[in-house]
Amino acid sequence: MADEIRTVALLGGGVIGGGWAARFLLNGIDVRLYDPDPGAARTVGGMLENARRAYGRLTLAPLPSEGSLTFAGTPEEAVSGADFVQESAPEREGLKRALLAAASAAADPDVVFASSTSGLRPTRLQADMDRPGRFVVGHPFNPVYLLPLVELCGGERTAPETIERAAALYRAIGMRPLVLRKEVDAFVADRLLEALWREALWLVADDVATVAEVDDAIRFGAGLRWAFMGSFLTYRIAGGEAGMRHFIEQFGPALQLPWTRLTDVPELTGELVERVVAQSDEQAAGRSIRELERLRDDCLVSVIQGLRAHDAGAGAVLAGYERVLMAAAPPGPVRADDAPLRLHDAVVQPDWIDYNGHAHESRYLHVFGDATDALLRHIGVDPSGGGSYFTVETHLSHLDQARAQERVHVTTQLLGHDDKRLHVFHALYRTEDDVLLASAEQMLLHVDARTGRAGAAAAEVLARVARIADAHGALSRPDRAGRSIGLR
Ligand SMILES: NC(=O)c1ccc[n+]([C@@H]2O[C@H](COP(=O)([O-])OP(=O)(O)OC[C@H]3O[C@@H](n4cnc5c(N)ncnc54)[C@H](O)[C@@H]3O)[C@@H](O)[C@H]2O)c1
Fold this sequence. Notes:
Shape: globular
Number of helices: 15
CATH superfamily of the largest domain: NAD(P)-binding Rossmann-like Domain
Distance between the termini: 65 Å
Number of strands: 13
CATH topology of the largest domain: Rossmann fold
Order of helices and strands: EHEHEHEHEHEEHEHHHHHHHEHEEEEH
Structural class: alpha/beta
CATH class of the largest domain: Alpha Beta
Bound molecules: nicotinamide-adenine-dinucleotide
Radius of gyration: 28 Å
Mean pLDDT: 92
Strand order of the largest sheet: 3-2-1-4-5-6-7-8
């Protein structure tokens, strides 16, 4: 299904519809959006801007060229000719049912309709639709362009194939579908979130904690664990060697104690609302929603990238998505221009940063090592074949600081070569403003895989090196080439 989707119709372009628009567009899918509010274009534009910024930091995998965004005057116009429909209108059953009924009558018969509803039952939402078998709940999480989870829940009339088709599309755009085993109000995630939200409101209503203190209780403790192990796996560990059985024996009885007030719903009196709003304003400390969104997105990017290093949780989803994007990208051209080669781009990863907020010095060598690998690929070295180049000497100059999530790139100039050696000069730049951050001069020696000793590289490799050397012969020698430790 995913390959067949070129155009998606979005019904509703608020917080969630705007997030869907950004995710689809950045994945190369055209979007046709209907929202009766003329302000929707501004919301969607802001969301898209946030999403572009976040993806620029999240991944270096080659994304397809961005899809096009058009606004439709009616739901019927939006869905006509679309390959998939995602409804994200306000959470009111009557409104959604009428919208889905009208739109489904105008859409092509095979087109899947998904609803972003946070908790309404699909059986009721699909009741008035034309061909209700093609309806499914596809419940995402804010920001839709970064969080991978999408809960899929079918109604009584949903065809199993509808769920499979929606899941395939969501997977193709980097998401992690979770298919519910049965239909239930509020699905899985919102049941958990609402339980926490009710209890949090009680703690504020009873004056046990402020809104900021409730948030501290989450973000300095269990919140850190949830991102990669959820609830059950962390409790298994908490049970020690005896695992989950011991955990239940130890803490099971506490469930009988009146620790929580979950079954009661706090009354949202004027006084409670005012207290929550005032404390929330204090907590925000004058930061605008846009500033908070960017802070949220930057932190999410760091967490997801950190998890990718361990192939855990949302990081594993990102790694899988990147593999698919890489495989789909056309191979780069083999170039030998009369300019240093630009073969390696990177994003400064959170775990490169030391306590001072700068990239640790060892990471500069790491980036230059990656640039050398890129050069070896560029000249056709196949380490599984005859041999490869080993780095025998590096001189590194640290010139400026790299900070978390900045994009950087390396240019590479060939200073000299013979049949065994490559003498190269790498320069590391911050991509945004082309500031030179560091340089590295390296001598590489070709080692024959069979003998384990220095030996000539393959003829094809040497031919490519010669082409680059011809082009680079016209370049001036970098100032820092040939330096040892500088003494002034
Ligand atoms: N906000 C969240 O965190 C969140 C998370 C997951 C799911 N959802 C669900 O997503 C849906 C949308 O929520 P939201 O937070 O984006 O709300 P929102 O109020 O930000 O956006 C709703 C949009 O729908 C538009 N709209 C009103 N009538 C419409 C109609 N007849 N047809 C099409 N559009 C119409 C509004 O103008 C508005 O732009 C709801 O079902 C909600 O439960 C919300």
